[in-house]
Predict the 3D structure of the following.
Amino acid sequence: MDYDVVVVGAGPAGSTAAKNLAEHGVQVLLVDKEKFPRDKPCGGGLPTRVIKQFPYLEQVVNSISYGSVTHSSSQKYEVKVLRDTPLLAMVLRKKFDYDLVKIAEKEGAEFRDNTTVIDCTISDEKVTITFADASSIDAQMVLGCDGVRSLIAQKLQLAHENGKKCICLMHEQSMKDSDLTKYFTDKRLVHLFIKAQGIAGYGWIFPKKDHINIGMGEFESAVDVSKSRLSLKDTYENYISFLKEKKMLPPTYAVGDIKGGTLPIFPLQKTYSLRALLCGDAAGFINPITGEGIYYAMCSGEIAASTVIEALQNKDVSEQTLAQYQKRWMKAFGRDLRLLGRFNKWWGRDSEKIVRLLSYDRKLARLIIGVTGGQISFTQYKFALLFRYLFACFKDIFRKK
């Protein structure tokens, strides 16, 4: 074998897996089709539990946000949360992803960028990876961490057929510290606009140390196809104009390079096969309410690495053995993703009531923001959430009277 494991895709999932494998003496090759450092369409907001679980990330965080403001679609209600402790950690994906690659290399992983995988064949004896230059390598196992359009998932015949996606548009550019403080305070308040410009999703503003990230995402699963609507690009341009009118951006603010991307909404039914595992976006590991995926990517990379290490030590890379991976990620975060997925279509409905309730009930607001923002487990707090929501609805009846 040329390598023990080939990891295809050097995003957070792939780099985390490669780091953990290399730490345990596994001969691992990490490959990516792009030339690094490379950018990726993303808000770049990390739930604080990512830092708690992966403390080495403290060295690559760009800034910290200590609060958020959530705006209802009518702009009549808003929910402001201010904290003395971090709410979100902010990163610049171009730097963040490359830093993770370098951390993996430091532990002993080999990295090849600008290297496109065009085929993956698996037999009882080995995995063969073929590259665009017609060269190939053999390995004992492969990890597919190659994104929403994963070639590895397709080759394993595990990919969703016409699965619904979240479509995003965003741009990130430098901004003076004085302007960031003026518009978003020294707490670097995050702003979220529910159903911004009428989309089945939300818009965001993520202020960072010396950059600003502005975007919007629409969930295809919640779109009312019977209604005519503008293209997302036109909607995005209207959104920027709206932010200027609301004096949330300088009047001379000019939008730079707009990037688009797609995200999976629901996990794949199966994320393992003979000699192969899928992680991150390739496995559909995304918060189906917010679209956040870095936490799930890194967790799945770590879980995959521990599963692979056991399989290699026991010299058993069968599908039956690797099924342990799915059980482990399901226990770690899969139940949360399933529960959150039940509320995905909420984006296509009237959200005014829920934001109004949140604006009146601070405890409900903290719970909702904690769950959707990835600070706390939905599975663990579901009954507390239900009780608080019913209590808030009861209070709302008397408030109306």
About this structure: The domain at 64-89+163-263 is CATH 3.30.9.10 (D-Amino Acid Oxidase; Chain A, domain 2). The chain has three domains: 3-43+93-162+266-341, 64-89+163-263, 349-400. The chain has a mean pLDDT of 93.
